[in-house]
Amino acid sequence: MDSERHELIAAVEGDIERLMADHIEKRPTWYAHDLINWEDGRSFVDEPWDESQCTISPEVREALVLNLLTEDNLPYYHFSIASQFPKDSAIGRWTRRWTAEENQHAIVIRDYLMISRNCDPVALEDDRMATISKGWDSPWTDPVDIFVYTSAQELATRVSHRNTGMKADDERAYEIMKRVAADENYHYIFYKGIVTAMMQHDPSACVQSMLKVYKNFDMPGTVVPKFRRRATYAARAEIYDLRIHAEKIIAPVLREWKIDKLEGLTPEADKDREALLAMPGELVERAEKLERRAVSKLGV
Ligand SMILES: [Fe+2]
Ligand SMILES: [Fe+2]
Fold it and tell me: How far is the CA of 74 from the centre of ligand 1 (A)?
């Protein structure tokens, strides 16, 4: 970490402590086992899985599996943050707590899928092995980039989990994904709070980081087998697509940080701010182009 960035993180250490205390006070404790209909469970040995047992649509099942495998890859997300900060710093302590919370998301989604038989258990385990064996390297190692990325990423997972639960047309799935999405929202509040605090000290560094990170934004699930196919299913089910990314993630974070009203930026950062503010509109334009292409392919 270069020394300027080091100073910036040191300057917001107190904010990180405050955000963590707020998080611990506000996030309700919940238990995955309370959300599962255990009485629906049957032996896979006596009664092997068959697709006819599924109760939710193939698109939503694919989205649930994509969300779960993305959550399963947690060791690499932990590493990408923990390896960049001292173990005994506020962010070091936060990262361990956050990891424990994130781990529960995979537990509850997997329990649901197994009990409800809404996925092939063999394919799921094979894909989990493939995903974690492949790993994931975060492109972001600079502390400002890390929190600019995690803010948008947590908001994106909130939207994706919530939409998956809503589109499932299944009360259990709805309740589970609502609970997980609420956790992601608490994480979003924490990370965006760090960026807000850093902006008080160096708005130019933050704006320049936002442009760089959001221009190259990828969900960490891209390493999941058949990612493209699964993401297409999620888009078709209106769970997550480019328009949602523009309107529900990028535009809200820019509004949150009042990018259009920032003052005292360096000339370079001011130029980047213009490009950043244009980004949601450009993404929507790209989304519209894709939507028109999809409609013409269907011959509608
Ligand atoms: Fe999560
Ligand atoms: Fe999260």
Answer: 8
Within-domain flag for 99:
yes
pLDDT of 65-92, one tens digit each?
999 999 999 999 999 999 999 999 999 9
- Mark 128-146 as b/e (b = at least 16 C-beta within 10 Å): beebbeeebebebebbbbb
Please give all residues whose CB falls under 5 A of ion ligand 2, grouped by chain where several chains appear: 154, 184, 187
What separation in Å is there between the alpha carbon of 153 and the centre of ligand 1? 10
Alpha carbon distance 175, 191 (integer Å)? 25
Number of independent structural domains in the chain: 1
Q: What is the pLDDT of residues 278-292, one digit of tens each?
A: 999 999 999 999 888
Answer with the residue of higher pLDDT: 9 or 127: 127
Q: Which-ligand-closest: CA of 98? A: 2
Distance between CA atoms of 197 and 1, rounded to whole angstroms? 19
Residue 14 lies in a domain: yes
The pair of structure tokens assigned to 184 is: 């992601």
d(CA 200, CA 197): 5
Which range marks the domain in which residue 30 is found? 3-44+59-298
| Distance from residue 5's CA to the centre of ligand 1 (Å) | 27
CA of 33 to the centre of ligand 1 (A): 17
Q: How many helices (H) and strands (E) does the chain have?
A: 13, 0
CA of 110 to the centre of ligand 2 (A): 16
Query: Which ligand is closest to the CA of 186, given by its number?
Result: 2
User: How much distance in Å is there from the Cα of 54 to the middle of ligand 1?
Assistant: 24
For residue 98, the CA-to-ligand 1 centroid distance in Å is 9
Does residue 51 sit within a domain?
no
Q: Model pTM?
A: 0.95
